[in-house]
C-alpha cells in the first residue's frame, strides 16, 4: 500500500464574495494510497466538500479559487493544471459521485446515453462497444434488467437506483480515484447499507482508491482505512480507523464520537458539542476549536497549534500534545 | 400520442363554433354598411336596398348567422362582397405567401436568437454578453415599420439587391422576413439566455463537468435541451401571431399576404372575408398550441400524453 496516487500539500482554497475572502480550505495536506479508502469527516462548513471539488478542479463557475498548495496526481499538479489537462482526467482517471442522486442525472436524456457519453469521450470506442460496457457496468452495480434500464429516463428510477447508476457512470472508465461526496446522505438507511457494500466490492475488484467525504461516522467505520477530521477549513486529526475509534486524540474528534448514541445505553439527553462552527467573522485567532473546547487553556486563545505527531505517532492539532495526556 | 392528438383535434370543433358566433356578432357590429360601400357613395337609397337584399343583409341577424354556419358546414366560406369571388379561393392564394414569410422569419429568429442566447449565457457578464443583450433590447424596441423602411433604403434602393415591394421571386421574401424576425429573435435571445443560466446551476451540469466535458459541450449536449421548454412556448406564440399576417410589414412591403387582405376587408366591410380570416387565425393558434404541446413531450420525457 505504499504507492501514493494523490498527494495534497498545503492546499488553500478561498472564496471571494463582495470583496471578502473566506478561507474555506486553509492549508490542508493529505495523501491517498492505491486501493485505500480515506475518509474526510467534518460538519457542514468544515471545508470537506470544497477540498474534494478542488481535487477535481470543479470550482469553476463558483466564487472559489485554489490560491496555494499542490495537488500531485501522478506527474501532474492538479492545482496548476490547465482546463484541457483536467478534462482528460475528470471522469476518466478521477471520477466523482455526488450527494444528490435525484438531481445529478440529466432528466431529458436516457440512462444509456448518459452512461455511454463518458465512455465514448475518454475511451475512444464505438457506440456499440460503449453500450456493451454500459450494460456491463449496470449489471456490476446490481441493477436488474440492465438492458431495459439503458432505455429509460432518470425519473423512472428510485433514488437508490439512481445512485447505483451514478456509481456505474463514475466507475465506467476504471478510474484510479473515486471521490464520493456524501454518497449515501440522501438515501434511506437500508439503501445506504447496500450502496456502501457495493462501493466496498467495487474497490476490492478494481483497486480504485476512494476519497470518502462524509459527516457520518457510521459510514466511516463501515468504509475507511484512514480518516482525516476537518474543522473550520483545517485538518485537526488524522488517524487509522481503529485508532480513531478506540482512542480519539483531538477534543473535537472526542466530541464527535461522544455524540453518537450507543445501542442498549439509556440516556436522558444526547451528548452534543456545545456552540457552533465559527463563521469567517468570528474565526478565533488562536485554536479554531478553542471556543467550544472543554480543555481550552490560555495558550489556545493566542496561538493556533500545528498538526503534528506525538510520541506515539498519533497526528493531531492540539496544545495538549505538549502538556501531556489529557485523558 | 396519436390518441392524444386526435382528442385535441376533436376538442377544437366546439371552440371554433364559439369563435364563429363571437366573430359574426362583432363583424356585424362594425359601423358602416357594406351595401352602401358596394353601391358607391353616389348611389340612391333604392339601389342600396336592392344590393342589401341581394347580399341577404336585409334578413334578421340570427337568420343570417344560420345561413352562414350552414354554408360553413358545407365548406363554403361565402363570396367576397367586394370582388364577388369565392373567399376560399382568394384565401388559398393569400395564405401561402404569409405562411412562407412566417416560416422564413421564424427560422431567422430561432437561429439568430438561440445563437445569441447561447453565446451570452456562456460568456456571462462579459463584453459579448452585454453586446448581445444590448442588441436584444434594440431589437425589441425598434419599430418594425421603421426597420423595414431602413432595410429597404439600404438593400433595395442603394444596393439594389432585393425588390422594394411585391413578391415576384424569392428575393421578395428576404427583407420582410428579416424585418419580422429581428423582434422575435431578440425575445428568443433573452429567453434562451435566462433559461440556460438557470439550467447551468443544476446538479446534472456539475455531473457533466465531472465527466470531463468541455464548457461548449456542456452547453450543447447537456444544457440546451433542458432550456428549450420556455423557448419553444415563446416561439409557438410568436409563430401564431406572425401566421395571422403582419398587417404593418405586409403594408410596408406591399406583400400580398393575409395581413394586407384583412386591412382591405375591414376597410370595405367585406364581412365574409373578415369572418373567414379570423376563423383561420383561430384554427392556426389551436394547431400551433397542439404542436407546442407535442414538442414538449419530445423535450421533456416527464411530460407524456398517454391518454
TrEMBL record, chain A:
<dbReference type="GO" id="GO:0016887">
    <property type="term" value="F:ATP hydrolysis activity"/>
</dbReference>
<dbReference type="GO" id="GO:0015833">
    <property type="term" value="P:peptide transport"/>
</dbReference>
<keyword id="KW-0813">Transport</keyword>
<dbReference type="InterPro" id="IPR027417">
    <property type="entry name" value="P-loop_NTPase"/>
</dbReference>
<feature type="domain" description="ABC transporter">
    <location>
        <begin position="6"/>
        <end position="257"/>
    </location>
</feature>
<dbReference type="InterPro" id="IPR003593">
    <property type="entry name" value="AAA+_ATPase"/>
</dbReference>
<dbReference type="GO" id="GO:0005886">
    <property type="term" value="C:plasma membrane"/>
</dbReference>
<dbReference type="InterPro" id="IPR050388">
    <property type="entry name" value="ABC_Ni/Peptide_Import"/>
</dbReference>
<dbReference type="InterPro" id="IPR017871">
    <property type="entry name" value="ABC_transporter-like_CS"/>
</dbReference>
<protein>
    <submittedName>
        <fullName>Peptide ABC transporter ATP-binding protein</fullName>
    </submittedName>
</protein>
<dbReference type="InterPro" id="IPR003439">
    <property type="entry name" value="ABC_transporter-like_ATP-bd"/>
</dbReference>
<dbReference type="GO" id="GO:0005524">
    <property type="term" value="F:ATP binding"/>
</dbReference>
<dbReference type="InterPro" id="IPR013563">
    <property type="entry name" value="Oligopep_ABC_C"/>
</dbReference>
<keyword id="KW-0547">Nucleotide-binding</keyword>
<keyword id="KW-0067">ATP-binding</keyword>
<dbReference type="Pfam" id="PF00005">
    <property type="entry name" value="ABC_tran"/>
</dbReference>
<dbReference type="Pfam" id="PF08352">
    <property type="entry name" value="oligo_HPY"/>
</dbReference>
<keyword id="KW-0472">Membrane</keyword>
<keyword id="KW-1003">Cell membrane</keyword>
<comment type="similarity">
    <text>Belongs to the ABC transporter superfamily.</text>
</comment>
Automatic annotation (TrEMBL), chain B:
<dbReference type="InterPro" id="IPR050045">
    <property type="entry name" value="Opp2B"/>
</dbReference>
<dbReference type="Pfam" id="PF00528">
    <property type="entry name" value="BPD_transp_1"/>
</dbReference>
<feature type="transmembrane region" description="Helical">
    <location>
        <begin position="99"/>
        <end position="119"/>
    </location>
</feature>
<feature type="transmembrane region" description="Helical">
    <location>
        <begin position="131"/>
        <end position="152"/>
    </location>
</feature>
<keyword id="KW-0406">Ion transport</keyword>
<dbReference type="GO" id="GO:0015099">
    <property type="term" value="F:nickel cation transmembrane transporter activity"/>
</dbReference>
<keyword id="KW-0921">Nickel transport</keyword>
<dbReference type="Pfam" id="PF19300">
    <property type="entry name" value="BPD_transp_1_N"/>
</dbReference>
<keyword id="KW-0812">Transmembrane</keyword>
<keyword id="KW-0813">Transport</keyword>
<comment type="similarity">
    <text>Belongs to the binding-protein-dependent transport system permease family. OppBC subfamily.</text>
</comment>
<dbReference type="InterPro" id="IPR035906">
    <property type="entry name" value="MetI-like_sf"/>
</dbReference>
<comment type="subunit">
    <text>The complex is composed of two ATP-binding proteins (NikD and NikE), two transmembrane proteins (NikB and NikC) and a solute-binding protein (NikA).</text>
</comment>
<protein>
    <recommendedName>
        <fullName>Glutathione transport system permease protein GsiC</fullName>
    </recommendedName>
</protein>
<keyword id="KW-1133">Transmembrane helix</keyword>
<feature type="transmembrane region" description="Helical">
    <location>
        <begin position="12"/>
        <end position="30"/>
    </location>
</feature>
<keyword id="KW-0472">Membrane</keyword>
<dbReference type="GO" id="GO:0005886">
    <property type="term" value="C:plasma membrane"/>
</dbReference>
<dbReference type="InterPro" id="IPR000515">
    <property type="entry name" value="MetI-like"/>
</dbReference>
<feature type="domain" description="ABC transmembrane type-1">
    <location>
        <begin position="95"/>
        <end position="292"/>
    </location>
</feature>
<keyword id="KW-1003">Cell membrane</keyword>
<feature type="transmembrane region" description="Helical">
    <location>
        <begin position="172"/>
        <end position="191"/>
    </location>
</feature>
